[in-house]
Amino acid sequence: MTTLIINIQELLQVRENGILKVSGLEMALLPSIKNAYLLIENDLIADFGPMSHCPKINADKSIDATGKVVLPTWCDSHTHLVYAGNRIQEFVDRINGLTYEEIAQRGGGILNSAEKLNATSEDEIFEQSELRLQEVMKLGTGAIEIKSGYGLTVEGELKMLRVIQRLKQKYPIAIKATFLGAHAFPAKFKENHSGYIDLIINEMLPAIAKEKLADFIDAFLETGYFSVEETEKIMEAGKKYELLPKIHVNQFTAIEGIKACVKHNALSVDHLEIATDDDIQALKNSDTMPVALPSCSYFISIPYTPARKMMNAGLPLALATDYNPGTTPSGNMNFVVATACIKMKMTPEEAINAATINGAYAMGVSETHGSITKGKNANIIITKPIHSYYQLPYEFGSNLIEQVFINGNILE
Ligand code: NIG
Ligand code: FE
Question: For the chain: N or C, fewer Cβ within 10 A?
Fold first, then answer.
């Protein structure tokens, strides 16, 4: 099956040599071809270039993209898309003046979602979660990471990861699963932190590894949640099962967690709303991708990750949604890109790099996703007719996507 897309107004994120990420000043550069064609063969990108070089072939399907922009699908490297129910009441409580931390201290927050998750059947969680997955695919997400972390019991964590496994089997997009048993201390272990860490290391991890349910390991490294020392134990335990860390860190406070994550070769460090000069220093010359989650900052009114400061220091940056019922009940990467431009003052080029190739890197799929490169998966977005790609963040509330291709097939 071949699909030839012709007369593309502008083809974005064209990378001849499959780079894995972009850093620092390079983030401002988004290579593109104006008046371009793109050839898809089966599930892969076979060829592309200016229309003057367009091959004269009889493709099975031909699409005229006059006036439209084509770009790789979004790579959302940080979500909690599998959950039960919602936390709408906490949203209203925050409007009435409570903070996220105050709600958590009252037993709400993550523990609220854990109670709901443990009371809901695997099938029901699957059904709720697949609706969210279908929605984000239509919004242009072509690769996604999904975490556990609302079980906080052996059975609950396994149940979440099995749901992620079923989503992987049923849906064509790349899905990576992250084990986040260390998301919060359950009430039962409030005074016995080492007891819960032991449960994670000695019971949850071996059971998860046995069923091959996780690709990465995560922890909420934060004041009042998991300390640097506790997170290091989790990262070390994960290493025994070849689970690279992707860690929640510096959401509310800076407690030297980033340095520890870099030391343990974390693939990514996520949130970083509070990032000190020392944190930025620790990330320099490392393989760890910093990930910003601007919809979370927007929704719970906390600072935005200092993107400019990080890129000026030569660091790469990825953007992800953090889709979850508490801090970000939205999986819309288009909104993330727009918010990064509007609130973090990232340029459209920087934001698109962060949401495609760097997002792919942050979930270990940049060999196959995140750019228009021959041999990569044919995961692409075709926009509606637009003036230029600047219109994507500019019209932040509109859906400017006309079609999404996943592995060479149009998403219906
Ligand atoms: O990334 N900060 C930790 N975890 C999630 C929120 C989880 C929740 O509130 O349910 C986050 O924001
Ligand atoms: Fe998160």
Answer: C
CB–CB of 377/407 below 8 Å?
A: yes
Nearest residue to 361 via CA among 72, 166, 41, 31: 72
What are the two backbone dihedrals, phi and then psi, of residue 36, each rounded to the nearest 5 degrees? -115, 165
| Residues, CB-to-ion distance under 5 Å, ligand 2 | 322
User: Would you list the DSSP string of 341-376?
Assistant: HHHH---HHHHHHHHTHHHHHHTT-TTTSSSB-TTS
Whether residue 234 contacts residue 206, with contact meaning beta carbons closer than 8 Å, is answered with no
Residues with CB under 6 Å of ligand 1 are: 109-110, 113, 220, 248, 251, 296, 322, 324-327
The model carries a pTM of 0.98
In angstroms, what is the span from residue 401 Cα to ligand 1's centroid? 28
The domains located in the chain, with CATH, are 2-72+372-410 (2.30.40.10), 75-361 (3.20.20.140)
Q: How far is CA 327 from the centre of its chain?
A: 14
Atom nearest to 251 CA in ligand 1: 2
Give the tens place of pLDDT for each residue, 51-110. Answer: 999 999 999 999 999 999 999 999 999 999 999 999 999 999 999 999 999 999 888 999
Residue nearest to atom 3 of ligand 1 (CA): 220
pLDDT at 18: 81
pLDDT at residue 17, rounded to an integer: 85
